[in-house]
Design a protein that fits this description.
The protein has 391 residues and is an all-alpha fold. The protein has one domain. Helix 7 packs parallel to helix 20.
Amino acid sequence: MNTIAVITGLALLAITMRLFKNITLSLVIAILTIGIILFIPLNTYFSSFYTTISDWEFWKVIITIFSIYLLGETMSKSGDSKRFTSAIKEIFPNPKVSISLMPALIGLLPMPGGAMFSAPMVKDISEDTPNISSKDALATNYWFRHSMEYFWPLYPAIIIVASMANVSLRSIVIYMLPVGLAAIITGYLLMIRSIPKVKLEKSSLLQLAISSWPIIVVIIFVILNQPGWLVVLLTSVVYLLTKSNKVGALKGVLNKWKTFILLLAVFYFKAFVESTHVHDFMSEELINWSIPTLLVMMVLPFIMGQMTGITQGAVGLSFPLVMSMASDGSGLSVAILAYTFAVAGVLLSPVHLCIVLTVNYFRESYSALVKRIILPLSIATITGVLVFMYI
């Protein structure tokens, strides 16, 4: 019943998003659907809300997104955003190439809502380029931001995978690399379809460095393993203080208050699911239904990814059961298979922060994004299955 409740809730979430174009409302409907089917007591709804607003992880995300918006608004109001995109276009004359490189670079940062870092620049370039639609810009920004998640060793989820599978991080990275390369190459062939050209001139490089120093600072400090939320907050505040239109930038951020309500709804959904222990009962149900072990290793991480929208959450909830099914010597191969499907679930999850934020930002639909990423995602997933079979 728990599995049916979750699948029904997720299906209604996707349907109502398409009908009402309001993700917050859709999340509430999904929560109520799961709660009604499972006869969840009323006090659970209140306790889940308290858990959400008292969770430091929630506030770190709020601070991070606020800081990213502040950085973006300051760059826009000061003119640095236009100087940045102008420099990128001079260095990489092909606009389709330039809008894929920016999110790929930001993809090195394991940060919630990171796709919003590159979204303003991608949008600026797409609006100046007739043959790049907002749907193309949305998909390119989202896909190249997340392709790195398959193999980049700084992501918390991949570290958790190595720990739970009791194998080295190096092994996970090496065997997930073909999956990540399949995602990047397929995405490039389907979304970009252009030969990259580079024009390195001192003036362009200098303008790029001057206009993008806050982004460079964030990347450096996050790679040095400093807390992402704190780095972005301090950088955005310092950057704001160096500019003149401070009030305008702050007003621009505050006008996005609906986004912060949406973030609250996303985290409330996650807290509600966890407080009801739906994931534990789902694991038991999948086994009791005599579903083949191999199928459980794929389905469970995928559903957990769909349900949480967070890769480390999907891994943390599914891997204890999945790894217990691995036979002696098969830990690495099972980890590769399960992680591939966990990432696939997260990348398609309607509660994934980057989907929630960028779909709103580009004013496009969830379905428009899914249609454009489903093929490269499928090829990356198939590659993960092939790597599993090879090992």
